[in-house]
Write a structure and sequence with these properties.
Blueprint (H helix, E strand, L loop, with lengths): L2 H50 L2 H12 L6 H37 L2 H15 L3 H27 L16 H25 L3 H9 L4 H30 L2 H6 L19 H8 L5 H34 L1
Organism: Bifidobacterium minimum
Function: Part of the binding-protein-dependent transport system for phosphate; probably responsible for the translocation of the substrate across the membrane.
Membrane topology: Multi-pass membrane protein
Length: 318
Amino acid sequence: MSSQDTKSSSTTDGRMADRVFRGVAYASGILILVVLAAVALFLLFRAWPLIGGDQKANSQTIESFTGGRSHNFWQYVGPLVFGTVVVSTLALVIAFFVAVGIALFISHYAPRRIATALSYIVDLLAAIPSVVYGLWGGIVLVPAIAPFWKWVAAYLGWIPLFRGPAANPPRTVATVAVVLAVMILPIITSMSRDIFLQTPRLQEEAALALGATKWEMIRLAVLPFGRSGIVSASMLGLGRALGETMAVLMILSPGMLYSLRLLWASQNQTIAANIAAQYPEANSLGVSTLIGTGLVLFLITFLVNFAARKITEKVSAQ
């Protein structure tokens, strides 16, 4: 076989491999859309008895869930949405700055051996099941953190969020937020660390050559480069906090109020934990009601991720 025939055969094989790879990539992308649509249709179909069924029966079911405090679906799901957003947002606020600080320490300050060990620990924390965090929070953190919340209520009680007296034991939104913050901390840290390590070396050296200190170099070169990645990491962590079930169920004393009293018990509840708590004793219409709240959570998560993509695109364009 001549060299020209060999070259032609190699080109044909390369084109075939390119077409196969492109087909697999397209199929994978379409599969994701199909799965997402299937989940949405499943939730809508199973929640349809709540949407288009007998409203009197729906009202009776919702009253049985809430002890007569709510009479329709929106009265029922409203406090759950509020509690979900409050707990998740507070967890993100607690975790964000700590996670970025750890990521910067690993990527730019720690010696190589320490940075490698910390990276392994962070990745290990991300793999721990949520039920383990729930056990740790309920058995260890709840009694251990009680004196701190009492101190916060005593000295910062003039702030409405920390108005006391603090519940004892503190099975409250504040305690749950700390546990969720620990859960999402390794996710944000891991992604931020990888983004910071990808900062162009020439940009860092240029900042240092112009007389910048190490912190100034990080502020001028590393953080601007990693802004979009930090936003994506934060939204991924927020998404996990929004859908967390077992840790919340095992720690939080539930309530159905629009309350921002973080140190009081029986104030708020999340959608996911409420589904897990109510599902075992729910009848068919009750299951439809719970799936309806799951559909609301699905929409909230979708909107959060959609907003994250838009923010990331805007930050990347700057």
